Amino acid sequence: MILSEIYSLTSYSIDNEIVMVRSIFISLFFLSSMIYPDVVHGSFEIKNRGGRAQGMAVQLVADVHDPSTRSINPCSASLHPGLKASFSYIRQWGLRELDRFQITTVYAEEEWSAGLSAFGFGRGLYEERVIDLSFAKRVIHECFLGASLRRNELKIENYYSDTFFAGTAGILFSGTRGSIGASISGFTLTEPDHDADMPLTACCGGMYNVSPRVRLCFEVYLESGYSTSFATGMEYKVLNKLELRSGYDSGSGRVHIGISILTGTLSCSIAYDHHSDLGWTRAYGVTYY
Q: Is-contact 24 10, C-beta < 8 A?
């Protein structure tokens, strides 16, 4: 049954070389997810970018305003009181089987903030769905500590379905010229049904305001059992209602570009990156501040 599902994914067209390359990749990806589900899970959990972050090739672990980064750092979007929300959708390499989405709401007071996120990866043969409940508390001046509880649901069609709980911890400090943040995820609170271990993942980085219009970001990613990677990005406000972004992710080896249009309390973002064989990845995001 599993082989028939994989075969259906590879039967788009034997006349199109690009489609064949993509189809082979899908088959190998899902085969590896059946054999090494911990590898697949760990590889995508820390890459849960929103539309704005995708344009800078970073996680925005040190961002104090954007609610879409709440699933990366439980302290994000805690600095200014009020209600914030975001939605993002990513179509990776034009393949619906690798779709990613995220919906986040955050409510902040002067001394604390609470957030609720739902995000997922994959359609059909492999699916991952996560609900994340987070809380952050101001401890000293502009420094916040936070934690989140995640309900993770993993599913490989006709193979297994698994649900377990995990935790994330984060810290965020905001200054006059920038901010510094870090988070650790993968604290398994209930053991998965399968025997694979969920890897611990850590992300730390900073954002620096070069000027009122230019912002730089640098981040380092560590994952147990995998090599360390880094990402760097830039955000440039060309006009009061227009922002351009670009960045580089050493993990994928690709350059990302993005653009946002600001309309009052809304920010609409589009981002792109390109793989030489598999094609374009497109990201779309809407954020309410």
A: yes
